[in-house]
Every structure is written in C-alpha cells, then in structure tokens.
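Hypothesis: this fold can be encoded by more than one sequence.
Test: take the structure tokens below, design a sequence, compare later.
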C-alpha cells in the first residue's frame, strides 16, 4: 500500500485517473485469511437471514400485506448492498488489492448508493406505514391500497435509479487535482467527491442527491414516531399502548442501526474530524454490514406473525402411516 501512496502522491492530474486506491483496515494485512473468513461469515449469515425473510413472505399469502411487502424490499436492499461491497472487501482481505479501476469504482459507488437509498426509503415508508396504522386505524385500509403501494414503489425506484444515474457520469468527467486515495475499503461517494478540484460543479448535484435521502429521511421518520408517540399517550390502557408499541419495536431498533453510523461518517468527512483510521474504517463497516446482518433477526423476533410463520415452515411435516 505504501508503494501505491508514494506513486500517487505527486499526481495532480486534471482528469479522471485510471485507478483509485482503497484503504483497508490497518493491521489486518498480516492476517488476511482470518479477516476474509469474518467477511464471508457476515455475508453468508446476511444472505441466509434475508433470504429466509424473502422466502417466507413470498410463500405465505397471509403476509401479502403492505407492511410485509415493504419488509420484503428492505431485505432486497440488504442483499444487494452486501453483494456490492464484497468484491473490494474480499480483494483487500485476500489479495491486498488496493487499486481499483475508475470505471469499476464508479459502478460500485452507484450501486452502493442505490441500495443505501433504497434501504433508507424503505425505513421511511415502514415508519409512515406504522404511523398510518396507529394514528388512523379505521381509515388505514383505504389510505394504503395496492394502488398507493405501487405508486410508492415507483417513486422509490425513480429516487434510487433516476436521481443517481447521472452521478457516475458527472464524477467520471470531473477534474481531479488530488491523489486518488480513498478513505474507505470501497468506493463511497464522499471519498470520491473530496478528491475533485475546487469548483467542480458536479459535486453540488451529487451531494444534493445523497443528502436528500440521508438527511431528509431521518427527519421524516422522527416526525412519524412523534405522531405515534402522541397517539400512544392518549390511549387509556397500558396494554393497548404496549401492543401498539410492539408493532414498531423492530423498526425502532433498525432505524438507529442504519442512520447513526452514516451520520457520524458524514460529519467526520465534512468537518475533517481527526479520527484514527481504524476507527473510521470500522465505523464504515458497521454502517454497511451490520444492518443486513441484524435486520432479519430483529424482524423475525419482534414480529410475532413473521416468527410464527417461519417456525411453522421449519417444523417437520407429519406423514400418516398406512395400516
């Protein structure tokens, strides 16, 4: 890695460099096999957990409701996010491959942000779903019809694909006046943008697109739970409050798990906070790898209907004996 840094340090090119240089977890290059095993374990467990969620929702007609459809799409985003991250993470762990072509880097960046914004959109949609179910229970079936759900999905698709599609092309044609050394083990938008020359107008658009999700969505989720909390306070029975609150328990755990690390990373990147590189890299791993690993457990344990359906499917079928 030091050789790469030395070679790239004097680079003050005004065009896209042929490669970007990724930063791995310091100290782990001496034990690549153990680090690769840990990454593969996380990936396989995430795929298994989210695959179980996708499988049970697809097979059980009773779960074909908006709440579980949104959970289905959340699991799709988790599967996609881990699959997109693994090539560079495993390349660093197994082959100490720090150099990645600019085209591959921008492609990875595009899909990372597509699946990240998809996950953020699903967390927001699930919060609005719970707010409608608790605040307007009598009108809920008419407020969230299949037609409305289809329109929501189209809006999310446009938000993830339409708004992000110009980003790789803008960044590919931006001038770069700094060494192409990124701050992560993958191609992350803030790390690419900060290498561009001052006054590169494409950075303004790219920052707007990212902040429109990672800043707006948490505020709307906070507002949704503020409305839910106000309604729960008005319920006379503590049992009713507990029952209504339990439907939000998994989501309340998933939201900070996703947003807190990315908000901290954004503050560190924008404010240039002097954080040690191992802590910075570990925080980025927590943001991208922990939610896909933990979300299936949260929703399987906290949602009683989901838990019952999974256990029912896993029970061995009884076969009668012929006399």
């Amino acid at each position: 890695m030091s050789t790469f840094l030395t070679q790239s340090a004097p680079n003050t090119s005004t065009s896209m460099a042929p490669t970007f240089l990724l930063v791995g977890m310091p100290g782990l290059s001496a034990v690549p096999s153990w680090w690769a095993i840990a990454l593969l374990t996380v990936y396989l467990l995430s795929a298994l957990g989210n695959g179980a969620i996708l499988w049970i929702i697809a097979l059980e007609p009773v779960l074909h409701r908006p709440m579980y459809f949104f959970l289905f799409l959340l699991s799709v985003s988790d599967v996609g996010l881990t699959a997109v991250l693994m090539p560079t993470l495993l390349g660093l762990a197994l082959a100490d491959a720090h150099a990645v072509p600019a085209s591959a880097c921008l492609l990875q960046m595009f899909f990372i942000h597509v699946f990240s914004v998809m996950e953020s959109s699903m967390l927001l949609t699930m919060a609005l779903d719970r707010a409608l179910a608790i605040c307007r229970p009598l009108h809920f079936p008419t407020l969230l019809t299949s037609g409305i759900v289809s329109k929501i999905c189209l809006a999310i698709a446009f938000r993830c694909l339409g708004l992000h599609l110009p980003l790789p092309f803008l960044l590919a044609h931006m001038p770069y006046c700094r060494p192409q050394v990124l701050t992560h083990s993958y191609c992350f938008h803030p790390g690419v943008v900060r290498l561009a020359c001052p006054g590169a107008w494409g950075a303004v658009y790219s920052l707007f697109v990212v902040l429109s999700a990672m800043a707006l969505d948490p505020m709307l989720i906070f507002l949704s739970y503020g409305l839910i909390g106000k309604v729960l306070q008005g319920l006379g029975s503590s049992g009713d409050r507990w029952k209504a609150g339990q439907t939000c328990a998994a989501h309340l755990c998933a939201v900070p798990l996703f947003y807190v690390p990315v908000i901290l990373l954004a503050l560190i990147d924008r404010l240039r906070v002097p954080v040690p590189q191992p802590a910075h890299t570990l925080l980025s791993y927590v943001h991208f790898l922990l939610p896909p690993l933990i979300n299936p457990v949260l929703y399987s344990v906290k949602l009683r209907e989901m838990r019952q359906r999974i256990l029912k499917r896993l029970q061995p079928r009884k076969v009668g004996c012929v006399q």
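Residues 39 and 57 are 27 Å apart (CA to CA). Strands lie at 19-21, 99-101.
Hypothesis status: open.
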